[in-house]
Every structure is written in structure tokens, then in C-alpha cells.
Amino acid sequence: MILLKRAYDPPDGRDGYRVLVERLWPRGVRKTDLQLDAWLKDVAPSSELRRWFGHDPARWREFTARYRRELRERPAAEALAELVRRASIRTVTLVYGARDETHNGAVVLRGEIQRALAERTPESHP
Fold it and tell me: Could you tell me the pTM of the whole model?
């Protein structure tokens, strides 16, 4: 299961592996309050893409396409593969800082993780 949670929402025992998926630390949040297992800056949208998008819903479709392209390149692809691996064995919560819960990088990232998990073929057993 892949959950999404704003950095400003309290951690929960059901969150599993909690990972911040932003390049910048969320404003006004203490590191101890997030209770993170990891901070994967490399899987976040590039600074250039983040600034271009500006959380403008009118740019959402183009942002999604550009971000997906970034996720196919190193080092983002390696960080994405790690999240897919973890999500295959336990709950992963993608922690993000955006106010808009519908138009943010974590939403795209969750979709990419889900797609990768669906494409995995079960290992055959003798």
C-alpha cells in the first residue's frame, strides 16, 4: 500500500515506511516531528520543474508528463526503484509539503510506484 500524507499531518502507526519526497524541507516543521525513515530528494521533481509548475492546476498535465520523464533518469530512477522495492513488502507513506493534495509530485510518484508494482511478474515457484 502506498499512502500520501502532508508533512503537516501527524505520523500514524499505520504509515509504515515514511519517506519525505521533496527537495526542500517543509517550512515550519521540525525534523523530529516528521518521524521519517528517509528523505529521498533525488525522487522529487527537479527544482526547475517545481518552480515552473508553481502548483498551478492549469499546468498539471504538462507537469505530470515532465516529472514522469525525470523519474526515468538517474538518480531519480534509482530512488524510484528503491520505493517500489519497499512498497512491494510493506506500507510506504510518501510525505510531501504541498497544500494542494491533488496536484503535487507525491500524487504522480504514487502512480508511478503503483504502475511499477503492477508490471512486476510474480516469481515462479518450482
Answer: 0.92
